[in-house]
Amino acid sequence: IRAAADAWACGAAALPKPWQPLKPVLPMEGMRNVLITSALPYVNNVPHLGNIIGCVLSADTFARYCRLRNWNTLYVCGTDEYGTATETKAVEEGLTPQEICDKYNAIHADIYRWFDISFDFFGRTTTPHQTTIAQDIFQRLLARGFLLRDTVEQLCCEDCQRFLADRFVEGTCPFCSYEEARGDQCDKCGKLINAVELKNPQCKLCRGVPVVKPTQHLFLDLPKLEEQLEPWLEQSWATGDWTANARYITRSWIRDGLKPRCITRDLKWGTPVPLDGFRDKVFYVWFDAPIGYLSITANYTEQWERWWKNPEQ
């Protein structure tokens, strides 16, 4: 309190001069370098106050605080644009997925600009950099033996003549009987669902009853990571600042044992899978979207790896 009072008595003239980083903002030797991201807002809606309060505003507040502390700060964000939610919105509005993304990306950018959110860069995930980085990560996983191939039973709508991605299927949760569960997860009980496990499934496009057919997909071999993951989690729980909810969910996954997780989908709108036998598929958005943080930074600066592959700074 005494130090605060002394600093206040000295007045604004005693404050250090504000740090003005060069453009683009890059890590600087001898400075505290801070990279901030907001959770990427999904592109198929108009953001409302709750969206802004939920992630964008808190990150913006922290970015402003960091700049006031004269920390070298980069704050990036952008719209998450691939996946079935975009396809669903495109069907609803009679537009192509690309047109939907262009429309709502502009709306998002305008709203955040109106709120004076202090992004250094606001980008999007439908870019060549996203394809390049996502496919590179995929090839590294493949080369290191972290991918599995498996034939799975998947719901197919014969009226629409397509395999149905998770968001195009709705039915009753097999665990809690919630009647509006999606084909990948139940929003009521939170359990992950294989779409073929849904009771009374319906195609969301035509309301027809889908049939089960086999199709081949690629999976992340998550069980291979359990032995390394458990000691890392123990250390992170002891030293980090995890919420009770995050601890509970993570513990339940470890307790039940990690399962292989599918990373491909029978869709057209997404990052193409660069592997023979799977070139008519795209990456599942939950594999693809987190890579958007890297690709958005890459669209901001060619030297993006100085932020993402630079633990010393």
TrEMBL record:
Keywords: Aminoacyl-tRNA synthetase, ATP-binding, Ligase, Nucleotide-binding, Protein biosynthesis
Gene3D superfamilies for the chain: HUPs (3.40.50.620), Methionyl-tRNA synthetase, Zn-domain (2.20.28.20)
Entry keyword annotation includes Transport: no
Keyword Membrane recorded: no
Name of this chain's protein: Methionine--tRNA ligase, cytoplasmic
GO cellular component: aminoacyl-tRNA synthetase multienzyme complex; cytosol
GO molecular function: ATP binding; methionine-tRNA ligase activity
Organism the protein comes from: Podargus strigoides (Tawny frogmouth)
InterPro entries named in the record: aa-tRNA-synth_I_CS, Met-tRNA_ligase_1, Met-tRNA_synth, Methionyl/Leucyl_tRNA_Synth, MetRS_core, MetRS_Zn, NrdE_NrdA_C, Rossmann-like_a/b/a_fold
Occurrences of domain Ribonucleotide reductase large subunit (ranges): 19-41
Classification via PROSITE patterns: AA_TRNA_LIGASE_I, RIBORED_LARGE
Catalytic activity: tRNA(Met) + L-methionine + ATP = L-methionyl-tRNA(Met) + AMP + diphosphate
Coiled coil: none
Gene expressing this chain: Mars_0
Family note: Belongs to the class-I aminoacyl-tRNA synthetase family.
Biological process according to GO: methionyl-tRNA aminoacylation
